[in-house]
Amino acid sequence: MPRYTSSVSPKGQVTIPIEIRDHFGIEPKDSVTFEVIEGCITLTPLRARLLESHQRFKSRLGPLDWKTVEKIAWEEAALTAAREGLYDESAQD
Fold this sequence. Notes:
This protein has helices spanning 18-24, 49-55, 66-84; strands at 31-37, 40-46. It is of the alpha+beta class. The chain folds into 2 domains: 1-57, Pemi-like Protein 1, Chain: D (Ribbon); 59-88. It has a two-stranded antiparallel sheet with strand order 1-2.
């Protein structure tokens, strides 16, 4: 990967170049770790364990838009409620 240069702001902030953010999937509000190794500073995306494990598996459905994800979640919640007997028939009046 090529080298990129960024300056340090008065608050000590540095902009991560877009090419690096894209390559590593770093999004706004993501956390990163800094580590000093043999006189060099490394920056590593900090990912939740659940997110890391999720990214190891490919979806059989392919990429999903938010409305589809929401629909699937509602259907799963409805199935769980029906299975557990959480449906309140008196609420239908």
